[in-house]
Design brief:
With 529 residues, this protein is an alpha+beta fold. It has 15 helices and 33 strands. Helix 13 (409-421) packs across helix 14 (446-459). Bound molecules: guanosine-5',3'-tetraphosphate (G4P). Guanosine-5',3'-tetraphosphate binds at residues 18, 20-26, 47, 89, 140-141, 143-144, 256-258.
Length: 529
């Protein structure tokens, strides 16, 4: 057990969340550079594919298997074994993006200094906050004109509701960017643009009390810095590891991923402050990787191969405890059977490689003969516990599905149900009518195209999607509710899911509050349990 414990203790498994273009790919790439995984910047895949238009995306179906929305990058740095979970942005944004966060122990939030908190950051943040995992903020692009630093922090606190604690502080921005001040070490790291020099670059550090600082950053910048530090020391929250661990305080760092400034400092601080694999709740109580010797994992993502000839699926699982051996037999709790986990693989940048060992904290993808569902537990423990399920995330786009050829009803129902099972789409029915009318909900609009394409290609069924104006969905948490008696707004629609659970759709966000006000005791939730 002790070598397993040591392996697990080294693991740091986190996701990077950001709004498209804030610099997630660039930052990831710089991390890999420090990890010695790549030698030159610009070799990480993902960015190019993320920018593929829908038609291109269809073209690359053969490669798609698991590589397009590729999943996890693993590398070693400073004695740690790091797993970065990829959360695709851009038009690939889908439920998978949210689910991936269920497999992370902490999150790095990248914010563009000229923009502050943006829409996608807000959405992803909510999921992290729901899980109470530590959240670290990297404010990027300081080499460009940025918003006022205090305003940026204010923005995070107000928009996201999390207090911040700046670990370092920027000195100027854009053309006048001089570097960052490390509040703990009381030293200034001087900015140098590494774009033209070495890829890693070295940051010159000078003690704040060293008179050299005045001329190195300029008198004016020094005066401003002094004022800001004073203000900051009086006003900002103190660093408190316990609050960070609970996701109630976000340490903030400033830098510039492109010029590779502040990235290594950030990585070092972050690794020291973040957590090794955490215990997870199961129906037998919390399972702690430090005390549970047996292997256990849960499935958080299933990806079907787009290649028609091989309808294989890959199930991605997060190992929560113990050691994984290639080809091992484990108990599939939901299926009630032993299964052999075959073809285990790990993704490295654009490649997948077959692995033979993995540990708590790691993510592996295994061949799925069609037996796994999202949220399923696998374990070698005699206790056969099941991890807590993965919530259903609120879709934001809805469409009514119509079949072109109504004779193919059977294939249609089978196809749409299977695709829904993989978690790519959610399906709902009209509240009063039967299966005749199906409404699909998706988190990212690209999923509509995927649905159409896959039904045609894999099930030979053509559909027409008629967009609906709803953008907000709420699960009704009250068990015994009579939908007929809910008095809603004119833009509200009552629907039910496949388990006959009642839900409400709204066009406008404000109608949600109004409906709650009109129906005392009504409990609505953004996440379906
Ligand atoms: P994303 O994954 O979050 O979508 O962002 P990505 O890293 O792709 O970065 C988006 C754009 O922002 C890229 O420019 C990238 O070079 C730039 N960028 C990232 N970090 C910094 C930074 O610290 N400073 C500055 N000035 N720019 C930064 P692009 O023009 O879209 O792509 P490219 O032509 O440079 O490849």
């Amino acid at each position: 057990m002790s070598h397993i414990k040591n392996e697990i203790k080294k693991r740091r498994t986190f996701a990077i969340i950001s709004h498209p273009d804030a610099g997630k790919t660039t930052l990831t790439e710089k991390f890999l550079l420090y990890g010695g995984v790549i030698n030159t910047a610009g070799s990480v895949k993902g960015k190019a594919t993320a920018k593929h238009a829908v038609s291109d995306w269809m073209e690359i179906e053969k490669e798609r298997g698991i590589s397009v929305t590729s999943s996890v990058l693993q590398f070693n740095y400073g004695g740690y074994c790091i797993n970065i979970l990829d959360t695709p942005g851009h038009q690939d944004f889908s439920e998978d993006t949210y689910r991936t966060l269920m497999a992370a122990d902490s999150a790095v939030m990248v914010i563009d200094a000229s923009k502050g908190v943006e829409a996608q950051t807000r959405k992803l943040f909510k999921v992290c906050a729901m899980r109470h995992i530590p959240i670290f903020t990297f404010i990027n692009k300081m080499d460009r004109d940025a918003k006022d630093t205090f305003d940026l922090l204010d923005d995070i606190e107000k928009e996201l509701g999390i207090p911040t604690c700046p670990v370092n502080w920027p000195i100027g921005c854009g053309k006048a960017f001089k570097g960052v001040y490390d509040r703990r070490k009381k030293e200034v790291g001087l900015f140098s643009d590494t774009r033209k020099g070495t890829s890693i670059g070295e940051v010159k550090k000078v003690d704040i009390n060293n008179p050299e600082v005045d001329w190195l950053i300029g008198d004016e910048a020094k005066v401003t810095l002094n004022e800001e530090i004073e203000l900051l020391d009086g006003a900002s929250a103190e660093f408190d590891q316990e609050l960070v661990d609970k996701g109630e305080l976000s340490p903030v760092f400033f830098g510039s991923a492109l010029t590779n400034f502040g990235v290594e400092t950030f990585l070092q601080h972050f690794l020291a402050m973040t957590t090794p694999p955490l215990p997870r709740m199961s129906d037998h109580g919390a399972v702690d990787p430090m005390t549970e010797p047996d292997f256990s994992a849960f499935v958080f993502k299933i990806q079907a191969n787009m290649n028609k000839a091989h309808r294989d699926r890959i199930a991605f699982m997060r190992i929560c405890s113990g050691e994984f051996d290639a080809g091992m037999t484990v108990y599939h709790v939901q299926g009630g059977k032993d299964v052999r986990l075959s073809q285990p693989q790990q993704m490295m940048a654009s490649e997948r490689k077959i692995i033979d060992k993995a540990y708590g904290g790691d993510i592996i993808g295994v061949f799925d003969p069609g037996i796994f569902s999202i949220g399923d537990t696998l374990t070698t423990s005699k206790e056969k516990f099941a991890y807590e399920g993965i919530p259903t995330f609120a879709p934001e786009h809805f469409a009514r599905v119509r079949q072109v050829d109504t004779m193919k009803r059977k294939q249609f129902v089978k196809g749409i149900n299977q695709i829904a099972q993989e978690g790519a789409i959610q399906i709902f029915q009209e509240y009063n009518t039967g299966m005749e009318e199906i409404i699909v909900g998706v988190v990212g609009v690209l999923q509509f195209d995927v649905l159409k394409y896959r039904l045609k290609n894999e099930y030979n069924v053509e559909i027409i999607l008629e967009n609906l104006p709803y953008e907000h969905i709420r699960w009704i948490e009250n068990e015994e509710i009579d939908l007929d008696h809910i008095s809603g707004t004119s833009d509200m629609k009552k629907i039910k899911d496949l388990k006959d659970r009642p839900l409400l759709l709204f066009v406008h966000e404000w109608s949600i509050r109004m409906t709650m006000e009109r129906n005392e005791g009504l409990k609505l939730s953004e996440f379906g349990r």
